[in-house]
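P.,

For your records, the input lines for the assembly:
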Amino acid sequence: MSLLVQLAAEKPENPLIPPVPELVIGLIAFVIVFGFLAKKLLPNINKVLEQRREAIEGGIEKAEAAQTEAQSVLEQYKAQLAEARHEAARLRQEAQEQGATLIAEMRAEGQRQREEIVAAGHAQIEADRKSAAQALRQDVGQLATDLAGKLVGESLEDHARQSRVIDRFLDELEEKAEAAR
Amino acid sequence: MSADPTQTLAFDTSCHLFSGCGFPAPGLHSFLFEPIFGDANSNVYFNKTMLLALLGSIIIVAVFWAAFARPKVVPGKLQMVAEAGYDFVRRGVVYETIGKKEGEKYVPLVVSLFFFVWMMNLWSIIPVAQFPVTAIISYPVALAAIVYILWVSLTFKRHGFVGAFKNFTGYDKSLGAVLPLSMTIELFSNLLVRPFTHAVRLFANMFAGHTLLLLFTIASWYMLNGIGIAYSAVSFVMVLVMTAFELFIQAVQAYVFVLLTCSFIQGALAESH
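Structure tokens returned:
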């Protein structure tokens, strides 16, 4: 028979009756575990878990804030873009209007200048005509006087002479006209 | 055989089938240890289970120290594993039974209990140690006593003397004539049977588990002779199966122990109805 069996036979103990030394050691062993875990290690990890939770929530909040900001910036840009488009359209419209008025003005100016030039031409022509008429009248008078003197100086019967004088007169006239030109 | 029983295995190794030697069946003697020092009769001694108990608590503290002494917001591997264990007990046991608000205070106790019991159970299949410390009734009794004192004092603190008495006896006027009988049974059940079963449930499970492991281990060795080798092989397979099963039972018993602890605390805190 084994020595252990003999040992058991010597101490026929009920396994449900707790031996006191083991009880004490068991309590000590548990108190060691509980002491370290409750006083130091679990508070440690709780702090870190809390930090982690906050970090995660903070990260989510940050991301949300960034998204909101991005959204608002996008809208701002869109609004600015639309405004710029409006502005450009307005400027184009204005430029067109200005161009149109400018063209109209130029046209009016041109018209006016043309009319002025035409009027000046007319006035010049009128003046020329007047001075020509004046000169003509003087010349005609002179001529008539010359012609009359010549006619009176020659015999009226002498037809040939007469006609010669006339022809000469006309030639002179022509010469004069040639010279005047 | 060696003269010093602490240096021997749990059975007589020279004994084999067909060698004219009876089967050295495991029994109560398998749970007795000669003191490493001191005298078994004087109550001042130190034996293997005490060594394992203290060593176990040092291991728990060491592991959690390595994991949680300098915890990081982004955890390392060990911290992650320890956190998973911690979180399992905190959320899966304490918050589930007591609730987050009231339970937070008891988380350290329950976490300590869970890992302590589990470690003590685990010794059963750790080579060389190979003995579940909780199979010695003293250890479960020590833990159950802590829980018992806690929940009884909590009941008095929360409900006053009369309230606590009603809580213990399950006082309910609608029971009428059966009330005295019901109260007697409830009082008996709550104050006497409950702590007893709390401790014995753990003890008996580990006791039985260790006995089964011993039985198949011894049988594997005992039958290792002649034709008995075939039986031995079957027995050895059973050793492996039972070891795996024990691994499972160890965790389950630790879980059950803390679950009951929480349910007792919850019962102590609950409003009487």
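Two observations worth noting. Strands of chain B lie at 37-39, 44-46. Residues 1-7 of chain B have pLDDT under 50 and may be disordered.

Regards
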